[in-house]
Amino acid sequence: PDMKNTSRYALWAGVPNLILPDKTYYSQKNSSADALLKIYSSMLNEILTIAGYQTDFIQKIIDDTLAFDQLLVPHVKDSTELADYVKAYNKYQLTEFTATSTEFSLEHYLKELLGTLPDQVIVSEPKYYAALNKIVNDKNFEIMRSWLFAKTVLGATGLLSDKLRVIGGKYSRAISGSKEAMSQQKSAFYLATSQFDQVVGLYYAHKYFGAKAKADVTNMVKKMVIVYKKRLENNTWLSTATRKQAILKLDKLGIQVGYPDRLDPLYEKFKVAGSSLVDNVLHFEKIANLDHYRKWNQPVNRKRWEMSAHTVNAYYNPSYNIIVFPAAILQAPFYSLKQTASENYGGIGAVIAHEISHAFDNNGAHFDELGNLHNWWTKDDLAHFEKLSQKMITEFDGLTTPAGKVNGKLVVSENIADAGGLSCALEAAKNEADVDLKAFFINWARVWCVKSSIERQKLLLNIDVHAPNELRANIQPKNLIEFYQAFDINSTDPMYLAPDKRVNIW
């Protein structure tokens, strides 16, 4: 969707991915970059050797690929910059966009892609397009071709032989800290479900979730919206005008629970034929790409699910102003009909309110009730909100984990949502007759339990907009007086936080 006119799909221009997980990895301070690039190069060498290429050619491909990757680095955003949604919206008129390259015809490319020429293109990273002539030109063409060749070969390894699949995963395993390759059976499962995700999701939802749970969770979501609305009505730092618009946005909030009502017709076009896995995957990708680009300039389908029902996750889409809870997250410990109301509020209740809070975090606050990028805040209200956001940045910034220190700015939006979600879920739990605050907070901690390698923790610390799970569990409760009351915590206890350092926004 066009972020300033979310009734229509717009054409967006993005940027290529870097080899390392984030731009920050390329700084001299990052000690793991050289080791990772050596693993990447070794993996490419092994794959291209098996493919029958000569030693000199292989070395050229590797050297060129790393050289072109380095060309990209100065001109793309890092994870902290990418976390600012608003700055991704940069609308270029067609002539302005096509003028970013004098080396090849962007106009021809757009016409081939869409069948016609768009009036405008939305650019997510202007710095990259400002440098496009320096990146893609006759001088660099050879190394760009090698880079494209390497990417293509690596992208195919999972579809050829099991030996190549295992070798082709060496680099990603080094990043994540996985000690061994996924089994062939599990790999096949994930490949199939990636192609037929919504089909598998509907099967899962109808078999393991059901209408009774869907109705119960939908009712819980509505309760959380009512709690949030009361909080907005009683808010002491918003002006009347801003508060009125915030309540309007909440009233227009879309809710999707469990699974979509019907399967996207796209999947009916996915017919497995012949014996070649490569041919089928490429055929499916072509069908999906054609379907995707046909949406350009068409009305936006706000009911379309962007996540399959068998995914353990949830999301808020600011352009649709909608919250979505797939069936797979609606299970223990997040939610169960067998858990107490307090446990459910400490789990899925806090997740529900977390997603509602995204409508009012440092990104969501810039979108109106229709999902359009539109400032509905007064100047003073926005300035006050930004001060509160800075307090949240400060609370987390520099906290130490086994993987390193937290970047408070990177994780601020999710922390604002966590804080609002936990606080509102707590209020809802307290409205129940059999409230048990200990059970509430314990289940909040339980849902963040995770098993993870130190390598994966380091990766997430650099690129993930969520705080490390341990901190999500332990820091947010410190901001709430009820946490101290429930566990009889005083100033000598390790989890005590002085009242003047506690952060409360929503």
In short:
By secondary structure, the protein is mainly alpha-helical. The chain has 22 helices and eight strands. The strands form three sheets. The protein has a three-stranded mixed beta sheet with strand order 1-3-2.
> What would you report as the Rg, rounded to the nearest angstrom?
25 Å
- SSE string, helix = H, strand = E? EHHHEHHEHHHHHHHHHEHEEHHEEHHHHH
Number of domains: 2
Number of helices: 22
User: What fraction strand?
Assistant: 5-15%
β-strand number: 8
Distance between the termini: 28 Å
Structure description:
A hairpin with a 4-residue loop joins strand 5 and strand 6 (322-326). It is built from 22 helices and eight strands. The model has no long low-confidence stretch (mean pLDDT 93). Helix 1 (33-50) packs antiparallel against helix 10, helix 2 (55-72) packs across helix 8 (141-156) and helix 16 (341-357) packs across helix 19. It is globular. It starts with 11 loop residues before the first strand and ends in a 20-residue tail after the last helix. The strands form three sheets. Strands 1-3-2 form a three-stranded mixed sheet. Strands 4-6-5 form a three-stranded mixed sheet, covered by helices on one side. Helices cover 51% and strands 5% of the residues. The longest helix is centred in the middle third of the chain and has 23 residues, at 211-233. The chain has 506 residues and is mainly alpha-helical. The protein folds into two domains: 12-195, Neutral endopeptidase , domain2 (Neutral endopeptidase, domain 2, Orthogonal Bundle), CATH 1.10.1380.10; 197-264 and 304-501, Collagenase (Catalytic Domain) (3-Layer(aba) Sandwich), CATH 3.40.390.
